[in-house]
Amino acid sequence: MPLHNVFVxxxxxxxxxxxxxxxxxxxxxxxxLDLNPITGTATQDDIVRQYGAPKExxxxxxxxxxxxxFSYGHRGATVISPYVxxxxxxxxxxxxxxxxxxATQSREEYDLLTLRFRGxxxxxxxxxxxxx
Length: 132
What we know:
Order of helices and strands: HHEEEE
Number of domains: 1
Radius of gyration: 23 Å
Distance between the termini: 30 Å
Oligomer: single chain
Strand order of the largest sheet: 1-2-3-4
Number of helices: 2
Shape: elongated
């Protein structure tokens, strides 16, 4: 594979990972702006009005924990790498040496929001995992 192709491939990979990181950071900021001001004052009814019914409810000690799973579909990614065949002695050679091989993967884009409520039904704390 020519050297300039390697640089282009590295640039594309870095650019796409930076875009995904910016999107995840923006979504996290939205959750912070929505939930930080109401932590300690919002009731379970307020949260249901804002986010709907949770996917899961469970008791953990004196706290009630609600979990939301917001799916934004699937994203495909193509991974391209040079193929280097090795013989039984560990030497790379052959007519397919350096030929690019690729694979396509798919992953879900989602937010996993966890809210913890005190015994009186008021939002105590929250955390979120954003996958982009």
